[in-house]
Amino acid sequence: MDNLTFKRFNGDISEISEYFKNPQIEFCDISVGAKYIWRDEFLIDYCISDDTLIIKESCPDYNDYFYYPMGKNVENALFLIERYCIDRGLPLTFCCIDNKTAALLSERYPFSRVYNDRNWSDYIYDAEKFKTYSGKKLSGQRNHVNKFRKNNPDYKFKAVDESDFPRIREFLTEFERGEDFSMWSAQEEEKKVYDYILNFRKLGNVGGLIETDGKVVAISFGERVNDTLIVHVEKGLKSYEGVYPTMASEFAKAFATDGVKFINREEDCGDMGLRISKLQYHPVEVKEKNFVRIYTLFDKIVPPVHIKTVRLVVTDITENFKNEYFALYTDAEINRYYGYDYREDFKGDAPDPDYFMDFMKKLKARREEYSLAVTSDGKMIGEIVFYNFDFYGGAETGFRFFKEQRGKGYAFESVSAAAEYLFSLKARVIRCRAFKENAPSIKLIEKLGFTKTGESETQYFYEKPRV
Question: Considering 93, 119, 145, which residue would you say is the last residue of a domain?
Fold first, then answer.
């Protein structure tokens, strides 16, 4: 597949569930349960290419952030993601990235930034310790469990089945009456959780409840991913003292089996009370959940550009150069070998100068091209453009000059300086091309130190790496 065609995830896991069974990165977010519960808040668009799942996510805080691909051909999936963003002028940002993969992405992409928010770090615990709360550090949890058992000697833990759904609904109604909800209303929270519970078996998840005197006083639901049991939902009635540590322990005993080594109890979302509670269970790791933002050379350019040579100044194209820019664009001979003829896109009479200025500004706004005026004594005599930016520190350059300025060495002088400018921004490679019949440009490109790397039916392609 050369292009990515995304579908919106609507809760049907039939196409994607297999990819979540053994992900390279393990967070609570990378699970079918999490994706199902929060599908209305964190909008998921997905595509399957070459047995590899590609996911991009949007929410009120960000749009089109990508997960690290899951499947057999991660390398090709990364290439398709890059192409998708380049073609649409989108920034490339990965979300939900662990430290190891963040390092790999930083090595792959020369211009990248890794950052995270402590509020979204996952709490990881030793599964065996949760079953008994052994050791001095967890003595408080043991005491709470003992108190709960003393006050509720007839309590029972059981795995949830469909016959329990009506009682769980009653429990959720009672639970939400005693809770404060800062992000959603109590009714919305209850609806989300209950919808998930009704479908937990279809999702391959597990669930348990604690009852006393026939009344449900706590529930817990989650799923296993590799050697980790993720707890998606855990709720208890606070009037039953010690119900939470008891529920957590019973859930671990029932489902942290057959090779499960860790329990992921998800994030604290910045709730300081919840953070204190999670830390009191002494996690073996508070696992950082990173974002990795990838930049191109375009992002390294800080306007206004001012490149000075012995005779010339290369700078941003402004309204002062509007008429000269119009003349460059509408000279058929100049554009014969430029690679773009405005008449291919523009229908009707010849456009006015404002059209080309607006066109240039739109390309810059989409991060597709950065055009520069080559000036002599304040007059525009030609143009240098940077375009085809990639995420590997590369870009392509092109140039065109008025006919009367040729043969004076201006092209060599200005393009050399422009290339050095890109290299000063840590460009890894600069590319250019020339039509095969355009002998003067080929001679100039080779004089500039570019090496031919390939050809098409009509053009030669060149590269110059940073040394």
Answer: 119
